[in-house]
């Protein structure tokens, strides 16, 4: 499950398919330095995005995509 205190990069590394949700919500700076340490909550606030909607979309995509850790395990 993706939570608000996870970093953007952490989510992208674990669930690559979530890139689509970040783009949908206007968070196209996924490769910027802020993505390394910025939590989803911080990113949503900085971009004026509804955090609950972002989390909903991220979790929907993540549930359809097996995480890299689960594939390796």
TrEMBL record:
Gene3D superfamilies associated with the record: SP0561-like
Residue ranges constituting the DUF1858 domain according to the UniProt record: 2-54
InterPro entries found in the cross-reference section: CHP03980_redox-disulphide, DUF1858, ScdA-like_N_sf
Domain of life: Bacteria
Name used for this protein in its record: DUF1858 domain-containing protein
């Amino acid at each position: 499950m993706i939570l608000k205190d996870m970093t953007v990069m952490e989510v992208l590394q674990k669930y690559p398919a979530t890139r689509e949700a970040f783009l949908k919500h206007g968070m196209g700076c996924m490769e910027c330095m802020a993505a390394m340490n910025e939590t989803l909550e911080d990113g949503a606030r900085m971009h004026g995005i509804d955090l609950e909607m972002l989390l909903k979309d991220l979790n929907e995509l993540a549930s359809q995509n097996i995480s890299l850790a689960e594939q390796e395990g």
